[in-house]
Amino acid sequence: MPGSGNGYLAQVLGEAAVGAGRTMTFLNERYRRIARRRSERRAIVAAGTSIQHVRATLSRSLRLDPGDEVDHHGSGDGEQKSQPGRVGGMGLA
Known about the structure:
The chain is globular, with a radius of gyration of 18 Å. The protein is about 55% helix and about 0% strand. It contains 3 helices and no strands. It is mainly α. It has a domain at about 1-60. The protein has helices at about 5-20, 25-35, 40-65.
């Protein structure tokens, strides 16, 4: 749908995707595979989306303090265990 989303972010992700298309990485393989089957434009969007997912994953993993515990056996949503003195276990106190 045209006009939805952040145009500046789309431009930066598009440039990063084209750059990644020139390297020997997972993103290069994804870009070339989609460009071969569909179109270069769709490949740029797909690779940009992959870049955004990687950034979000890294951001989430880096936000955890080394001393924080992650509940791997609880509800399965990766929520931090609540700790006394912390607002919601997020370290905002």
